[in-house]
TrEMBL record:
GO cellular component, one term: cytoplasm
Molecular function GO labels: cysteine-type endopeptidase activity; protein-phosphatidylethanolamide deconjugating activity
Membrane-spanning intervals of the chain: none
Keyword Hydrolase among record annotations: yes
Signal peptide location: none
Protein name listed in UniProt: Cysteine protease
Family membership: Belongs to the peptidase C54 family.
Biological source species: Geospiza parvula
Entry's localization field: Cytoplasm
Keywords: Autophagy, Cytoplasm, Hydrolase, Lipid metabolism, Protease, Protein transport, Thiol protease, Transport, Ubl conjugation pathway
Length: 411
């Protein structure tokens, strides 16, 4: 027999659940109504164009295929004694995870890979998911990112900006042999072709270094798995461009160039949002940006004994959110993925044609040679370490003490 108090609690839970369902339905049908009222305009999602009057279902499938990382609770405390939830402070970290996850999807499964609920997915997909589980021994977990942020001047539990997240991903990628990414974060609004090619054309590593690095994330990648980054050649490129597109508000002169970036086949979207409120922008329709929102708190999910991950909470199956582009905070970071050198060459051509065609107030610069007044460019390399978790992070701090900070230019 339930007490009156318990019955009241159950009633409140039912009311709250009903309210949530109604809210999601309102968002979903509002999105469909918005699409129907803009049938003529194409929707661009990460380099793919969708026409609303012919392939609305394909559009929604394309969006739901993106990995969706949100706040989580009940994971092991960060650093042993830190927070066990990132609610309220980890939204930009989650957005960084989403952008990186999209790069890994493109790297291993291809841009046109689609996710379907209850459909068996390839092993590479589950290995990608395991990289982001909320455990200290997973290479891109909230634990690793938050602790690596300490080296960027951010305390655990403090909100990150787009550039800080980019720097953290660049450091962590050095220890990820399976995905074997070269992460380039531009400086002073300038992308240097010479530096990127120097970094991506890597020589073969010694077996001892490769073995120690592969050992670091064995639990994230699964048992007895070969790594994919031991051969010399072009390393797949994750290019992140932190930008300031205005002072207090976005300058309208940048809007067209900003939207053009989502049309490029190499697009990974953008990190940004509003002050202390981060979103992962994946496309646009007209003058509205389409984004995935990390501000939902879900329970920690771990991998199964066979290495698979229950992934239903890692895909947003509701209609995506929208934001007027003029409401965007001017501090953003663009992301691009170039699996092969020809992809990067094509990206450079598109930038020259579509982004740099405006002679004044360019969104960023693309130059062939390393600027002579800059410090020499030395591609980052990982140290020979045999530790994991927080010890791994402590061992890499000294490598980046002399790194140049990203400078915000006046607009």
């Amino acid at each position: 027999m339930l007490s009156i108090k318990h019955e009241a609690i159950i009633t409140l839970i039912c009311i709250f659940s009903t309210f949530q369902i109604k809210l999601w339905c309102l968002i979903f049908f509002s999105f469909l109504h918005y699409l129907e009222s803009n049938l003529i305009l194409p929707v661009w999602i990460l380099g793919r164009q969708h026409h609303l009057n012919t392939d609305k279902s394909k559009l929604l499938l394309d969006i739901s295929a993106r990995l969706w990382f949100t706040y989580r609770r009940k994971f092991s405390p960060i650093g042993g004694t830190g927070p066990s939830s990132d609610a309220g402070w980890g939204c930009m970290l989650r957005c960084g995870q989403m952008m990186l996850a999209q790069a890994l999807i493109c790297r291993h499964l291809g841009r046109d890979w689609q996710w379907e609920k209850h459909k068996k997915q390839p092993e590479e997909y589950h290995r990608i998911l395991r990289c982001f589980l909320d455990r200290k021994d997973c290479c891109y977990s909230i634990h690793q990112m938050a602790q690596m942020g300490v080296g960027e001047g951010k305390s655990i539990g403090e909100w990150f900006g787009p550039n800080t997240v980019a720097q953290v991903l660049k450091k962590l990628a050095l220890f990820d042999e399976w995905n074997s990414l070269a992460v380039y974060v531009s400086m002073d609004n300038t992308v240097v072709i010479e530096d990127i090619k120097k970094m991506c054309w890597c020589p073969a590593q010694s077996s001892s270094v490769a073995h120690s690095s592969a050992h670091l994330h064995r639990s994230a990648l699964g048992p007895n798995k070969n790594t994919a980054g031991l051969c010399p050649g072009w390393k797949p490129l994750l290019l992140i461009i932190p930008l300031r597109l205005g002072i207090n508000h976005i300058n309208p002169v940048y809007i067209d160039a900003f939207k053009e970036c989502f049309k490029m086949p190499q697009s990974l979207g953008a990190l940004g949002g509003k002050p202390n409120n981060a979103y992962y922008f994946i496309g646009f329709l007209g003058n509205e940006l389409i984004y995935l929102d990390p501000h939902t708190t879900q329970s920690f999910v771990d991998s199964e004994e066979n290495g698979t991950v229950d992934d239903k909470s890692f895909h947003c199956q509701q209609a995506p959110h929208r934001m007027k582009i003029m409401n965007l905070d001017p501090s953003v970071a663009l992301g691009f993925f170039c699996k092969e050198e020809c992809d990067f060459d094509n990206w450079c051509s598109l930038v020259q044609k579509e982004i740099l065609k405006q002679q004044s107030l360019r969104m960023f610069e693309l130059v062939q040679k390393h600027p002579p007044h800059w410090p020499p460019f030395i591609p980052p390399t990982k140290p020979e370490v045999t530790t994991t978790g927080a010890e791994l992070i402590e061992s890499t701090d000294k490598l980046f003490e002399l790194e140049e900070e990203f400078e915000i230019l006046s607009v």
